[in-house]
Task: inverse folding
C-alpha cells in the first residue's frame, strides 16, 4: 500500500478486502492439509467454479491454495453430497429384484389343491 501511494482513506477501504482474501486462502490451505485425499472433492467444489473459470483465476488459485489446477478446472457445479455414496454391484441389484418379485402377493401365495407355494 505504501508503494502505491494511497491515501489513508484508500488504505482503510482496501485493508479489509485484502485481509479477507488472505484469511480465506490460509483457511483453504489448512482444510486441504487436514483432509484425507479421498475426501477433498468437497473442498474443490467449494473453492472453484464458473466464476473462477470466467475470470481465469484457476492457476493463481491453485498456486495460492495448494490445490491441484486440473482438479479445480474440472469443477462444474457447486453441488456436493455430504452423505456416503455406495456402489452396488449388479448382482446385489438383481438379487433384490428377484426377492421383491418372489415376495409379491401374486407370486408367493399358496394355492388350494397344489403342493407348490
Result:
Amino acid at each position: 500500500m505504501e508503494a502505491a501511494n494511497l491515501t489513508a482513506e484508500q488504505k482503510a477501504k482496501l485493508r479489509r478486502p485484502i485481509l479477507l482474501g488472505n484469511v480465506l486462502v490460509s483457511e483453504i490451505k489448512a482444510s486441504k492439509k487436514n483432509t484425507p485425499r479421498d475426501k477433498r472433492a468437497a473442498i474443490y467444489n467449494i473453492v472453484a467454479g464458473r466464476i473462477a473459470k470466467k475470470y481465469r483465476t484457476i492457476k493463481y488459485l491453485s498456486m495460492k491454495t495448494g490445490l491441484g489446477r486440473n482438479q479445480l478446472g474440472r469443477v462444474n457445479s457447486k453441488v456436493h453430497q455430504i452423505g456416503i455414496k455406495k456402489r452396488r454391484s449388479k448382482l446385489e441389484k438383481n438379487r433384490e429384484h428377484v426377492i421383491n418379485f418372489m415376495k409379491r402377493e401374486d407370486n408367493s401365495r399358496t394355492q388350494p389343491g397344489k403342493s407348490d407355494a
User: Anything to note?
Assistant: The two ends are 86 Å apart (CA to CA).
